[in-house]
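SEQUENCE AND FOLD
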Amino acid sequence: MTFFTKLGETISATGKDVSQKAKELTELARLNLDMKAKEDFIEKQYTEIGKQYFELHKEDEEPLFEEINLISESLMEIERLKSEIAEIKGKKKCPACGTVVEQDAVFCNKCGAKCESIFEEEAVTPGNENEEIDEETVEEETIDFTEQELHKEEE
């Protein structure tokens, strides 16, 4: 009987140790998670301070940090890329507020400003009056070209 009593006591003590270790590991994990959350919060605050500093000093003639110039150049490049994307999608930017509008929009949907077309209309210069494209000629040429392509495919 003493064997079983000792075995029971050993199992009970081991169970308590395991339980204590599990509690310690859980507490360590919780503390590490809390610490990581605070570190992330601090990083966000640093970023916000940097943004505010940039906004205050972006117009300085000689900024204290070279990164201000790098950020300004990157922001201009981003705007250029956005304009390219809008052009590819057949859209344009409002000159007043920067909202992307349809290419054929005359006024901005957001601010109501007049949106000039990015494509300048060709002015008819003296001597060019006869160079206008005749729609019937274009249709005939297109039909002829299409018929030629069909004959090639049949052969």
User: Anything to note?
Assistant: DSSP finds three helices and two strands in the chain. The helical segments are 2-57, 66-88, 135-154. The longest strand covers residues 91-93. Confidence is low (pLDDT under 50) at residues 118-135.
